[in-house]
Specification:
mainly alpha, 13 helices
Length: 303
């Protein structure tokens, strides 16, 4: 009797193993009964504990992959991207107020939004040379007295390379350091908010979230202006001066509405604070931009 029971146990244990060998990895994934993320038992298509979707063999098809990606980008129900960008552009201060109030599920996280737009801007204004903001040679050539160009010629001669190679190295380093600097930029502007709005009695993290949203807005506007820069190029004076003036006015107006909405200041106080904050914002940007360029020059000189 005991031997027969033991035989049945062995056979019962061997059967699943044989099924695993015959079925293959794809069938095992398709028949998964545990959540791949948290290990909870699955009773439906989605895990009731963490929300992860039950894995299926068809998930690994190219058609399924691109279909789900398209749905995430275009479906209002499944995507936070367009709703967040629409609120960012058209309703100044709303995203910050929603985050502070704890209503965060419907929007992208402030840090993800900010870093994503900064990364997109870095790519857009670097991959095509006529609109590159990290083309050192283009800016040096605007010195009509040629003194700066002569200085770089001497620099290149000391390094034993030609001028074009020197500019390429500096530009690559400059772009790399700018890619590492967003948190310094956002943190610096948050400090400006803390100083200018010192009597607002807000936590620093609230200033930090406002900073991320304003940086995201300003960066998004720069991205939307890319087609204009594609036509006219990035240079000093002329049409670029008008574009810059338009951007300044837009930032001041947006800052006024956002500060009024988030910090609940009076109209008079907001009229004073908004221009100061925009100046502080651009001061932070120029410090980060100039610091990255200086670090690039030092790095190339020491290499």
């Amino acid at each position: 009797m005991a031997s027969e029971a033991g035989l049945k146990v062995v056979e019962a244990g061997a059967a699943p193993a044989a099924e695993l060998d015959a079925g293959g990895g794809a069938d095992v994934r398709a028949a998964a009964e545990e959540c791949p993320t948290c290990g909870e038992g699955l009773a439906g298509d989605y895990c009731h504990r963490c929300g992860e979707k039950r894995p299926e063999s068809r998930d690994l098809s190219v058609r399924r992959f691109f279909g789900e990606a398209a749905q995430e980008l275009t479906s209002v129900e499944h995507s936070k991207l367009f709703g967040t960008l629409r609120s960012l552009l058209l309703r100044p201060g709303l995203l910050t107020n929603e985050w502070v109030a704890g209503r965060r599920k419907s929007y992208l996280k402030p840090l993800n939004l900010c870093l994503g737009l900064l990364a997109a801007s870095l790519f857009a204004y670097s991959f095509y040379k006529p609109v590159s903001m990290y083309d050192v040679e283009k800016f040096v050539r605007q010195d009509r007295q040629d003194e700066t160009m002569q200085m770089f010629d001497r620099f290149a001669a000391r390094k034993g390379i030609d001028r074009a190679e020197l500019f390429n190295r500096i530009g690559e380093k400059w772009q790399r350091y700018m890619a590492l600097s967003p948190l310094l930029f956002v943190g610096g502007f948050a400090l400006v908010l803390q100083l200018v709005l010192i009597f607002s009695r807000r936590y620093f993290v609230e200033h930090l979230v406002f900073s991320m949203h304003f940086v995201a807005f300003s960066t998004l506007v720069v991205l939307l202006l890319w087609p204009v820069y594609f036509v006219v190029g990035v240079k000093t004076g002329g049409v670029n001066l008008l574009i810059g003036a338009f951007k300044w006015v837009l930032d001041i107006v947006y800052m006024f509405v956002a500060v009024r909405a988030v910090y609940r200041l009076s109209t008079a106080r907001t009229l004073v604070a908004a221009p100061l904050l925009v100046v502080g914002y651009f001061a932070c940007y120029l410090l980060v931009l100039g610091g990255a360029l200086g670090a690039a020059l030092v790095s190339v000189a020491l290499s």
